[in-house]
Amino acid sequence: MSLAERLSDDLKQAMKNRDKLRTSVIRMVRSALKNREIETGAPLTEDDVLAVLQKEVKQRKDSLESFIAAGRTDLAEQAEAEIAVLGEYLPKPLDEAELKALAVEVIREVGAASKADMGKVMGQLMPQIRGRADGKTAQRIVQELLS
Q1: CA–CA gap between residue 105 and residue 111 (Å, rounded)
Q2: Rounded CA gap, 126 and 138, in Å?
């Protein structure tokens, strides 16, 4: 079952259960997916769907920081709840040890020896970790390994 199909099924179930939060979050995601499909003019791939989900999570996290800074706990709680719902559709994130192991493997494959080879390594590593790890964390780990 594709991610888009899963979202549709979960929306139906959330509506049956009268789960307002889940219903509104899934509707918002499906709307963002439809907008992205219109922008590209082609059906979305699983990677495209994941990219939209990640973008929505990032927006919520940015909003969450703003709400906390402004002392708006009610809106912060809402954003946290939305992030939790969206997180159910994202792949399991990599921990630092798994990310480091992948980076070591890519460095070995590419034959990287110094920081000058960082672009080659990151070019190979990013498609493997897309949606499962932060690019900044990956960059930091690769820099440490190439030092």
Answers
A1: 10
A2: 8
Model confidence pLDDT, tens digit, residues 99-139 = 888 888 988 888 878 788 888 888 888 888 877 887 888 88
Q: How far is it, in rounded angstroms, from Cα 22 to Cα 26? A: 6
pTM of the model: 0.74
Distances (CA, A) of 86 to 13, 58, 124: 16, 10, 27
Amino acid identity at 104: V
How far apart are the C-alpha atoms of 130 and 93, rounded to whole Å? 10
Chain-centroid distance, C-alpha 82: 14
Q: DSSP assignment of 62-76, as one string?
A: HHHHHHHHHT-HHHH
Calculate the average pLDDT of the chain.
89
Q: Identify whether the C-beta of residue 131 lies closer than 8 Å to the C-beta of residue 56.
A: no
Check: CB of residue 83 under 8 Å from CB of residue 100. Answer: no
Cα gap 33→50, rounded to integer Å = 10
